[in-house]
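notes to self, project folder thing:

trying the whole complex as one job this time. last attempt i did each chain seperately and stitching them together was a nightmare. two parts in total, labels are on each line so i dont mix them up again. if this works i'll redo the older ones the same way
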Amino acid sequence: MENRQRRTATKAPKRAAKADKSVSEDVHVRITEFPVPPEPASAEGGRYVYGIIEAKQPLSFGKMGIGGAGEPVYTVNFQDIAAIVSKTSVYIFDPTRENALAHEHVIETVMKTHTIIPMSFGTVFRTDDDIREVLRSIYVSLKDVLKQMEGKLEFGLKVNWDRDRIIEELKDADEEIRRFHQEITRKHLQSTYFARMQLGRMIDKALSERSAQYVRDIYEALRGVCVASRDNKPIGDKMIMNAAFLVERDRERDFDAAVNKIAKYYGELLNFKYTGPWPPYNFVNIRLKLERGTAS
Amino acid sequence: MPKAKKPQVLVVEDEASVLLTYRLMLEDEGYEVFCALSSQEAEAILARRGFDLVLCDLSLEQNHTGFEVFERVRKRDPKVPCVLLTGYANRETTERAEQAGIAVFFKPIEIDEFLRTLKKLLRNAHGKPAEANRD
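result (full assembly):
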């Protein structure tokens, strides 16, 4: 969901150590599923859950619930934590653009004033009591994650490169590649499969090294202004970096400046796509393992 | 005079350096090359767009084969010329390819012949001279 805020990066590198520590919290929680038979969907059949925050009192965030009916978004509280919810008449939401934007809009609104643990798109419970039961079951874990994420925001950074341009550079600048390429051309070795494959391997290796070096330099340049980072798999063959950074809310400007600086340094060679702030999707991973049991 | 459109070729090969080699070789010949490192990637690309020509290695990731990719290609457009690249095809594989009208090249391929064949396949399929060669 990169449709929120695309920041334009523009500037240059300063070396530091890679920001490689991650606070990814993988909370594996068992909750008891009470043997309540499914209820038929009524007008307000379910509760769509957007995320969890710290809140001692009930709060409301306006009429912006998912589903298009403008349902009020409110909290279901348990002790000093609360789920952000809205009523819904359906249990399964299609990930359409409209639904995804509605989900994001609520999270974005709540994020302005609270640290939120985002729930996955499409999380629906039957009743407020069911939600309270889950909050109760995993209270300690949720408090722990909320504490770790307090005052922090996530930013996404995808870096693409102009690979063809780099290959041309390598053909000129890399001594070994240049010599071999010239040899192939001069001796008309184009028709030799193995010579071609050897050149391909040399270029591929040089590209991998160059890409790894760029990624290292970018991480090093950002290490001082973030709390943690997470490396995701690049998408497609033009992307060399697909990372998420966890940043202190009050260091957002510093992070912004650092990204712009390094982007400007690389100029047209690398293209930086910088998005956020997001809730810490990449740093919080709460998996609920439902376990059938009897209510005591 | 308007610039001739480059023939668009999809190459599917699960070894990155070999894939890059095909890309460089074909780009040198004036083709616009799209690459996929797996049958899954190829599927995703083919769901979005078609190609003038598809080259695919026989053995792909996790026991997938080039034939699966060609089936997807032909489902989209039965006339697209397909070329199977392999180092060790048996008779059964070769016959299967021939029956499906798929050209087979054995590695190590003879590059001049390979490039000539691609041009010919394009010419036959699209009824016009290949415009791939820059020279």
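what i see at first glance: Strands of chain B lie at 8-12, 32-36, 53-57, 82-86, 102-106.
need to look closer tmrw
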